[in-house]
Amino acid sequence: MDGAAIGTGIGQPVRRREDLRLLTGKGRYSDDVNLPGQAYAVMVRSPHAHALIRSIDTTAARAMPGVLAVLTAEDVEADGLRPLPHISNSHPADIQIKNRDGSPTIVPQHQAIVGPEICHVGEIVAAVVAATLAEAKDAAEQITVAYESLPAVTHALAAVEPGAPTVRRNFPNVILDGDVGDLVAAEAAFARAAHVVRLDTWVPRIAGVPMEPRAAVGEYDSQTDRYTLYAGAGGAVSPRRDLAMVLGVPPEQVRVVMHDVGGNFGTRGSFSAEFALVVWASRRLGRPVKWTSDRQEYSRSRPSWRSTPKAGSWRCAARTWSIRAPMRWPSGRSTRASRSCRASTTYRPCISAGGRR
After folding, report:
1. For the domain that residue 43 is a member of, what is the CATH number?
2. How far is residue 286 from each of residues 69, 227, 278, measured CA to CA in Å?
3. 237-247 and 273-285 helices cross at what angle (nearest 10)?
4. 3-class DSSP assignment, residue 27
5. Cβ neighbours of residue 332 closer than 8 Å, sequence gap 6 or more
6. Tens digits of residue pLDDT in 142-183
7. pLDDT confidence of 88, banded at 50, 70, 90?
8. Peptide bond just before 204 cis, omega within 30 deg
9. What are the residues whose beta carbons fall under 8 Å from the beta carbon of 31, sequence distance 6 or more?
10. Does some domain include residue 23?
11. pLDDT (mean) for 319-325
């Protein structure tokens, strides 16, 4: 017996069917999507980890050839776009952490275009939409932003020290403080342990670098009042829900189409601000809007994970083990109520939520 379930297909090899199409250049990734009459968006991003925008001058950018729109946080507020939801899609088997005092988890607000407070390098402070990509890039360079730099903290241990700079104004640095497991039983096990070993470890900060940077095309149909997003996300159902929440419309009015994905590595697990921006810009302009991140932009704006210090104690007595491991991690720009782990996905066929292909 090799442990395979006979007759069910479980444990049996599955012949790959997608390789020929992908290896011969017939894949369809996000940047391969082009719609008639589409415009191009370029994001202006913050170079600061923590700052206040004192002024932003878009006059020169608006006068540049081909420019269709220059969008800022004021436009986001005026149009009533809602904050990014940052909902963690957890599985029943995932470990759920709640505040030990029973209070709700603090979830800071995060708009698609931020301002006046900047809380992360790479946050979007303006978006330029033009008839061509080159014209959008040229206009973005003409935007002048005056920043007031604020104290920043990037180390998880330093952030919880008394007097540490605040990551966000009006929010504490610790947004979730809870326990997992049986605290009483663990303490009892340590009390009677034959040996106790203590050590500190560090999980380095990581950021996935997939083959395909993020990209998206948004389209709004004024006749049907429906929105369509083409994007290489970690799925289609959750982005559809999140996009509807940002736009403030029922999910039935939103469609998300996901074709091939050039790598995930956790980078596509959260809803991206750019997804909302291209669809919203399409509604404002009456034409599709496309955005594709280049590698340099991706490096400045991608989410990062972990950077987790762990102070662990291991108790050994005969054949039993007990572990205490206080952990701290930075929430970064994408604050979610809980964390869940997913396997990397390098390829998925087209998935459509909210409508037919």
Report:
1. 3.90.1170.50
2. 12, 12, 12
3. 60
4. coil
5. 120, 303, 304, 305
6. 999 999 999 998 877 788 888 999 888 888 888 878 777 777
7. low
8. no
9. 212, 215, 292
10. no
11. 50
Is residue 276 included in any domain, yes or no?
A: yes
More confident residue, 299 or 230: 230
Q: Which domain holds residue 133?
A: 29-353
Question: What is the pLDDT averaged over residues 313-338?
Answer: 48
Q: What is the mean pLDDT of residues 253-282?
A: 88
Give domain status of residue 16, yes or no: no
Is 50 exceeded by the pLDDT of residue 26?
yes
pLDDT at 234 over 80: no
Return the residue matching tokens 């074709």. 259
3-class DSSP state of 237: helix
279 part of a folded domain? yes
- One-letter amino acid at 156 equals A
Cβ-based burial of 191 (10 A; exposed 0-12, middle 13-18, buried ≥19): exposed
Residue 314: pLDDT band (50, 70, 90) is low
- Please report the beta strands in the chain, taking only residues with DSSP state E, as ranges in sequence order: 39-45, 51-57, 67-71, 117-118, 124-130, 144-149, 195-206, 215-221, 226-231, 254-258, 289-292, 305-317, 320-324, 351-353
Question: Per the structure, how many domains does the chain have?
Answer: 1
The residues with which 107 forms a beta bridge, in sequence order, are none
